[in-house]
Design goal:
237 residues; alpha/beta; Nucleotidyltransferase, domain 5
């Protein structure tokens, strides 16, 4: 089973209000194990970089000026993710930006199945903080390199968090045992055992789009918009 752990960085919080993608990072998992394959690109947003966004990821307008436009890298991104499951922390945010950029290029929206690790973490740890930093602290994952947000680094960290959310050491031990079985016997390795993801953590791209459209109908003062913006601000993206 192939999954793509994905993260983005942007110029702000609104995919429909003029903000743009500036970075995409993806790492490949096969049966929940990182393969070492990744996709990473910086993107020229063709606009200024607000100070608030710069403080989050440290990507300046000057740094991004000579980077490719999204239209130039879109197909490479689509080729890498293919039709496989996307694993994203606060998925509506990243999917909203990716689909807005794809739409602006005249390309189809993503139809991949999506696992939102924010939803998964809330089911595993009701009432607890579920930002990426908080989950790293809970599971003892080293995130000392994360002085600023970065799409590729955050994807690598999220891949570790995702494994813990699925069962952590039990899953890792099962995969290790299967690898050892294959190497010793020379036989084909059996498929990795998979811990079921709780109901409600898998959503389609169409469901995410419908959710975003529903929220948009609530108006600018909708409480949900305030909640989502606050979630991004505290690092759940």
């Amino acid at each position: 089973m192939r999954e793509i752990v994905l993260d983005t960085e942007t110029t702000g919080l609104s995919a429909t209000g003029g903000d743009r993608l500036v970075e995409i990072g993806c790492v490949e998992l096969i049966n929940h194990v990182p393969t070492g394959r990744h996709h990473h690109v910086y993107i020229n947003p063709e606009r200024d970089m607000p100070e608030e966004a710069f403080r989050v990821h440290g990507l300046s307008e000057e740094f991004l000026r000579d980077k490719p436009l999204f239209s130039a890298v879109a197909q490479d991104f689509l080729d890498f993710v293919g039709n496989d499951v996307l694993v994203i922390h606060n998925a509506p945010f990243d999917m909203g930006f990716l689909n807005a950029e794809l739409g602006a290029c005249g390309l189809p929206r993503l139809a991949n199945e999506v696992i939102d690790t924010v939803m998964l973490a809330r089911q595993r740890h009701p009432g607890a903080r579920v930002s990426l930093d908080a989950l790293c602290k809970h599971y003892g994952i080293d995130n000392s390199r994360r002085t600023l947000h970065g799409a590729l680094l955050d994807s690598e960290i999220l891949a570790e968090v995702y494994l813990e959310l699925l069962g952590g050491r039990q899953v890792a031990l099962a995969l290790s045992a299967e690898n050892e079985f294959g190497s010793r016997s020379g036989a084909a390795r059996p498929p990795a055992r998979q811990r079921p993801v709780p109901l409600g953590t898998r959503v389609t791209a169409q469901e995410l789009e419908a959710h975003a459209e529903f929220i948009g109908q609530m108006g600018e003062k909708a409480l949900w918009l305030h909640y989502e913006a606050h979630a991004i601000a505290v690092g759940e993206n």
